[in-house]
Amino acid sequence: xxxxxxxxxxxxxxxxxxxxxxxxxxxxxxxxxxxxxxxxxxxxxxxxxxxxxxxxxxxxxxxxxxxxxxxxxxxxxxxxxxxxxxxxxxxxxxxxxxxxxxxxxxxxxxxxxxxxxxxxxxxxxxxxxxxxxxxxxxxxxxxxxxxxxxxxxxxxxxxxxxxxxxxxxxxxxxxxxxxxxxxxxxxxxxxxxxxxxxxxxxxxxxxxxxxxxxxxxxxxxxxxxxxxxxxxxxxxxxxxxxxxxxxxxxxxxxxxxxxxxxxxxxxxxxxxxxxxxxxxxxxxxxxxxxxxxxxxxxxxxxxxxxxxxxxxxxxxxxxxxxxxxxxxxxxxxxxxxxxxxxxxxxxxxxx
Length: 351
Ligand code: BGC
Description:
Elements: H1 2-36, E1 45-51, H2 57-72, E2 75-81, H3 86-99, E3 103-106, H4 115-123, E4 127-131, E5 142-146, H5 148-160, E6 166-172, H6 178-196, E7 200-207, H7 213-226, E8 232-235, H8 238-250, E9 258-259, H9 266-274, E10 280-282, H10 285-300, E11 310-313, E12 318-324, E13 327-329, H11 335-339, H12 346-350
Parallel strand pairs: 1-2, 1-3, 3-4, 4-5, 5-12, 6-7, 6-8, 8-9
Antiparallel strand pairs: 10-13, 11-12
Helix pairs in contact: 2-10, 3-4, 5-6, 7-8
The chain binds beta-D-glucopyranose.
Beta-D-glucopyranose binds next to loops.
C-alpha cells in the first residue's frame, strides 16, 4: 500500500514533472524552431545592415558592394551606422526588428555587447550574420570575414623578412573589435620568437581607440619622444599607419622606417608608391560582400550555406564561418593585385 501510494505519488509527480518539463521546454523549442526554420518565401527579403562607421573608405565600399549584391539576389537592404556608439547600435537593431526585417547583418562596434542584438533577433526568429567582425558569446548564425590572424602574420612576416634585428613600435586597433585582437595575435605568432631572442625590442605597444588615426599619431609621437631609433612600425591598418607616418614625417623619418598597414586604402596605396608606407594587406571586399549577401539569401530560403566550411569559436559556440584569404601588397605587386582587380585605378594610385 505504501509502495503503491508511493508509486502513484511517484507516478503523479513524474507526470506533473513531465508536464512542467514540457511547459518549460515548449517555449524554448518553439523559439528554436522559429529561429531555425526558413523565413517564408517572399518576393523581396528585407535585410538590415548595421554598420559601425561609414567614415572609413573601406566601409563605404563594403556598404556599396553588399547592398548591390543583396539587391541583385532579391533583397532590399536598410543600412545604418552607429558611429562607434554601442547604445545607438543596440537601438538601431531594435528599430530594424520593430520594422520587421527578415535578417540582420552586423558589423559590431563591440563584439561582446552585440550579443544582445543576436539574442533579441533570435527571440523574433530573425537570424544574424556577423560581417567582418565576430560577435562573441552568443548563438551567432554565421560569421563572414577574412582570416584575420593571418592578416597579422602577413604584416609581421613582411617586417621580419626585411629586418634581421631592430626596434619596433606596435600600434593595434580598437580593443573592442575582436579583429584587432586577432591581428595582434597573428603579429605575435611571428614576432615573439625574435622578441624573446633579443633580436627585436618593442619600444612601445599601444592600441588606438576606435581605430582613430589621430590616436595612432599620438602614440607614435610618444614613442619618438623616447627614441628615434625605431626601425619598424607594425600598424594594424592603413588608418593607423597613416597616423604613425604623419608623426614620423614630423621628425623627417617617413620613408626610413618600415610601416605595415591593411585595407589597401587609396591613401595607403599612394603612400606605398611614395615610399612612406611599406606594405598593406589587400582584402578583396567584393568577395566578402558577395559571400555575405549570398549566405543571407540562402539562410532566408532555408538552404545550406555551402561556403561556410570553417568554424570559429566565439566563447559559446563554434560559429559556422566563411573566411577569405588576405593578400600582401607592396610596390612590387600593386599592379598585379589591387589594380588588376579594379580595387583602385592605376591613375588614382600613381598620378
Ligand atoms: C577591419 C579592418 C578595418 C578596421 C577599422 C577591422 O575590424 O577588419 O579592415 O581597418 O576594422 O575599421
